[in-house]
Design a protein that fits this description.
Two copies of one chain form a homodimer. By secondary structure, chain A is an alpha/beta fold. Helices cover 47% and strands 15% of the residues of chain A. The longest helix of chain A has 20 residues.
């Protein structure tokens, strides 16, 4: 179980290695949001998303023996790059299990970050869990799960410690904190950090339409699943259901979820380009979309949106600009 | 004459108002640059460029009486927005003199930042100086020049104080600091700050091909002019010649200038999108282009590039991505 002490310990291990990402703002966005809007630009984190925090937290906590044997992760996206970069910096071998049909640049990036990429055929009945488990067993690798892992949650929680400090510097102690939510690792980590430091800041998970398992689970008081697992441009935050470890934390600490459309996420990407000069992927812009376009569902004079990642294909980004910028 | 004490005083006035911009990095860019590359992301500053620092420094130093009467600036670009935003926050009227044929979004942005925009016809023989001087005289406005003004140089110098501190945290005390250079306000401000704090960090001005007045002036030891004043996508850093106040500072403190092509600036914009998740305008990306594509002209194991601004038209940005990302 992740505690504030674990988050503080993770922050010490990350100190000097992770980027302290800035809290950005623009009067133009304040006007659309109808209140003060602060954007935690986590897209500027190493590897382009907050996932570097969790990866570093997990790898840096391994024993020397475990570190020598190596780590393994399943991911075709941001978690893969976060773990690969953290492992490389620690001199730890990393195996990343990716679908053979993943976009070539993602496979290449992960390899360029020093990881061994093991491909599996997701259409041919192979499961990544089976491929991963076999590799882990034979080679003695430590599995780093993307969210249901206390050390990963602690790493993501370091983002919450920064928010607490930066919001205080802006005079904000009462606000909704909108967090893009897949399995809930970042949302629960930030929620735990804020509970300890600034209980007036409350996490609100944000999800894309059609993949609102966390929002429905929070409303029902028990775990609900998504019916589909693909088909959204917000691919970074699609998961089958809230995590076993994360859901009780979310349930205890978060306010109601907010659901945004793909179009709203694309509009938020264009506004982040125009007004904040940052690059967001659709799943990284959902929280900003919620702040801008669902303001009636938000409480208070100020709101904080965590812009979680910027690993977007150039073609999709150009599309967002050509439509909305 | 701007001194380190003036820069420190400006930093105190800016504290809590300007954004402390992060120093970003990527192993992918290090590889291209052939050394450690750190990017000071000044595009994330309020109004999308470092110009907010100089604007704030100048407005905040006015007497109460001067502040009540208001300020005036000539600019169709980043200086206009920096002065307008700083004036608005101080409750000071701002008049910005802009060409009537400036892009509509720039005029609208400047108005939306609370400034009164006075248009002049640059094709019809009106000079902005004449229009501005008349307004300044009749209304008792204080003129804020874009670079030949000690308070503005002091404001831009605060960026240098941050670089000194952030570079030290990265263990860097010896490196070239590449700065996009128009009139030389930012280059001279940073150079003065670094001279006082970390003399091993040396400013190298960067300019676009065909507009290399500072590079040629430094080489000649006396002021040289550009033959043309328009026709580059790096519009943010085009000036007729180095400033009267800035040139002696540049001459005393800077290493040789570096000249980049427009194509290199566009490639740097695409790489900043891919690897750093920041939005740069061509004139804001020239320094990064120098670090990436002119590494043989740079000394040492590390280099710092100041990415000075991100106010780029969406169409041009899309073009950079479609060609190079």
């Amino acid at each position: 179980m992740t505690s504030i002490a674990m988050i503080e310990a993770a922050a010490e291990r990350l100190n000097g290695h992770a980027c302290v990402t800035p809290l950005l703002s623009s009067p133009f966005l304040d006007e659309i949001a109808g209140r003060r809007l602060l954007v935690k630009a986590e897209c500027l984190q190493h590897t382009g998303s907050f996932k570097f925090r969790g990866g570093w937290s997990a790898v840096s906590a391994l024993s020397e023996e475990e570190r020598k044997r190596g780590v393994i992760a399943y991911s075709s996206g941001n978690h893969a790059q976060g773990v690969a970069a953290a492992a490389k910096a620690h001199g730890t071998p990393a195996v990343i299990v990716m679908p053979a049909d993943a976009p070539q640049p993602k496979i290449k990036n992960t390899r360029d970050l020093g990881a061994e990429v093991v491909l599996y055929d997701r259409t041919g009945g192979e499961s990544r869990e089976a491929v991963g488990a076999e590799n882990a067993k034979v080679r003695g690798l430590t599995l780093i799960k993307p969210y249901d892992e206390p050390l990963v949650i602690a790493g993501q929680g370091t983002c919450g410690l920064e928010i607490a400090e930066q919001a205080a510097a802006e005079g904000i102690t009462q606000a909704d904190v909108l967090v893009n939510c897949g399995g809930g690792g970042l949302s629960s980590g930030i929620a735990l950090a804020l509970e300890a430091r600034v209980p007036g800041l409350r996490v609100r998970p944000v999800e894309p339409e059609g993949f609102d398992d966390v929002t429905r689970s929070l409303a029902a008081g028990e775990v609900r699943q998504n019916t589909s697992l693909s088909g959204s441009i917000c691919d970074a935050i699609l998961t089958p259901q809230p995590g076993e470890i994360t859901f009780p934390i979310l349930s205890r600490l978060c306010g109601p979820g907010i659901v945004v459309t793909e179009e709203e996420a694309m509009r938020a990407m264009a506004l982040a380009f125009l007004r904040l000069k940052i690059v967001l992927e659709p799943g990284g812009a959902a929280s900003l979309a919620a702040a801008l376009f669902h303001s009636s569902r938000i409480d208070g004079d100020a709101v904080i949106a965590v812009a979680t990642g910027g690993n977007v294909d150039a073609a999709l980004f150009r599309e967002a600009l050509s439509r909305y910028a």
